[in-house]
Model the fold of this input.
Amino acid sequence: MTLLHENAETSQNLVIGMPPPPESAESSQKPAIGSVSAMKEATVSVQPADVAGIELLSASQMARRLWFVFTLSGLCNVFNMLEVNIYLPYLYSRVQCCEHDGVLLESKYDIVKQDSVADMQKAAISLGKTMNLTRDGAGLFYLPACSLPHFPAGHELWSMSSKCQNKAFVQDTAQQMVSISQPVQKGLAILVLPVAGALADVKGRVPVMAAFISCLMLACMCFAADACGFMSGNALVYMGGAMLFPSWDPKDAIVNGVVADVLGNDENNKSRAFSSSLTINNIGSVVCSAISYVCIRLHLTSYFLPWFAFSGLALSILTFLFFCVPETLPEHFKQPIQLSMFNPFQAHLHSLSLLGRDRVLVLLAVISFIFTGSFVGFIVTLFSYLCMIGFSMEEALLPGTVGNAATALFALILVPQLPRLGVWRANLLGHSCWIMAYMLWGPISIACGKAFPYIAGCVQSLAFLLTVPSLQTMVSQRVSASDQAKCQGAIGAVNVLGVFVGIAFYSSILFDATAQGFERSRPALVSGALSAVCLALTAVARKWDSIDHTVIPTW
Done:
């Protein structure tokens, strides 16, 4: 559908790397994106382009145009997976109880279910360990919370901490730490996102990304210092968790701005670019999951070496950014920094006002809030949930890894079809897949066995590939070129609010390490219901878009 532009400035779409107009001799001498001279000089050649006249880029053309941003995004995505795969086992390893901290556990952590008592007694006998059984008023045996034997690392009844023998307490304590550290992290992201978006739109993308990657390196250094006992208490854990804030929406907002710089207002190519970027991210996730699997398989009592190694990775990414990534923000968009840009509340008001002038963007922001909160809330409890239904710690990584690996196959099939499918149909189909994925993760896995989480992981990857890039494209298509990072940052801020609410709600209310039967699937069931809400709201947004498909004007 041809976009209607409301002023002359926004009627020209910027496309990077295309042949310059013949009347511009100066611009014809500028190097193309991806060339050696472009990387050294960080210059960009731009020209007005007619959306209707732009052809779809081939895979090789897309790679030549965007190889640097795909690589950067994929490397940064490793830190997303650190938070999913390494952070929680690391927190497990720190939990202390009973004889290690002198505090007795609540009675809810007693083992009272008779088949659980029998399984634990059988395992203890086979390992030559003693157990102190206690009779309750009804004459039934139970195990007091602090009387559980210490099972060896790797055993199916291992508590996942060498300093606490009660597995349920270990899981609950770690989830409670997540419910504190994650809101702190997301609160910091909310403050930084509008400021970073405003700076990226006037000074460039590279300086902002450099600051973000430096924060990731600082986070890993905090975790490494905590793991080696540099400071007692949880201060370093919370500080490191807060410094991981760029790995999600802040980083994505800048990366999306780079893609928009390069491809201009070209819906089909941008949709394919966002999908390709997500695929590269998932390939990076597979590599990170493999590393995480090895770390967890070793059953480390200290996570100093993994965190130290990841801080070195952050330094390598920073080096790649400075030497290989060109600045893509067009020169005529660059302006002096104003003091008001550092006021996050004013920047939020500015960015959100851009969304507020378009009812479709407002509804997309609501959808993004619900989707992100339900997804992240579920994901932060997924590892513990899989351990509850019989997976070992290292096995709990595998369903997600299989799903990420399947993304490459889905991308080969799906990305060429995205222009024909369209972003709205892709988004609707994606939310339908999310409903199916949550049902597979939850009640179907509990009822039918351990094979179904692997299927759920694959369906989830397909849902991600359909939902996230299409949403990014829909937002990008409705804002002017000069406001790309600010509006993507505004959506990112809304996402952060969703994460803030989702993590607190899922970790503190929905998740219960002592739950039995289908009650364990409550997080998955709630996320499935919220996905159905997103599906209905997306149908409404699509109808509105068909009536009023315009680019909102710049200020």
In short: The first strand starts at residue 13 and ends at 16. The mean pLDDT is 79. The chain is about 65% helix and 0% strand. Residues 104 and 518 are 29 Å apart (CA to CA).
